[in-house]
Automatic annotation (TrEMBL):
InterPro entries: TT1751-like_sf (IPR035923). Keywords: Signal. It comes from Actibacterium lipolyticum. SUPFAM superfamilies: TT1751-like (SSF103247). This is DUF302 domain-containing protein. Residues 1-19 form the signal peptide.
Length: 147
């Protein structure tokens, strides 16, 4: 038992922390207008949106199944895309950067803030991934209409 506890403690002490913050921009533009602007911003970078996760719809559809009656989002989607050139560059620098691909930008509106649409993305670690973060930031800002 002592050995199991020691191994568990050692694993917890040596396990890396992967907490990530989010960068968000808020706009008074409608959800649909921000989605349109995001799609254009991604295409404008020469990228293709691989998938759209309709997270808000899923959470609303399943809230009763998990014993909740809370509506979290009026609308919420996550857009996933990748850049072959930048992904290769950051993965050649550190192959474990695969964990960040594809790159996601989320857009949501909340019932308690009907005139606001939020656009954001998770931050990336220092080093080569900052080039990806700069790309994400420019796309998110363009979608939100932020200078």
């Amino acid at each position: 038992m002592k050995n199991l506890l020691a191994l568990t403690a050692a694993a917890l002490i040596t396990a890396p922390a992967f907490a990530q913050d989010a960068v968000t921009y808020t706009t008074s533009d409608s959800f649909d207008d921000v989605v349109f602007a995001l799609e254009n911003a991604v295409i404008g970078q020469g990228l293709v949106i691989d998938s759209v996760s309709h997270t808000g719809d899923m959470l609303e559809r399943t809230k009763g199944d998990v014993g909740s009656d809370v509506t979290l989002f009026t609308k919420a989607d996550v857009f996933s895309f990748c850049s072959a050139a930048l992904s290769r560059k950051v993965m050649e620098a550190d192959y474990t950067n695969i964990q960040f691909c594809p790159y996601d930008i989320f857009i949501y509106t909340r019932p308690d803030a009907p005139g606001e649409t939020v656009v954001g993305y998770r931050t990336f670690p220092e080093g080569p991934m900052q080039e990806i973060q700069a790309l994400m930031d420019s796309i998110a800002k363009e979608a939100a209409g932020v200078e």
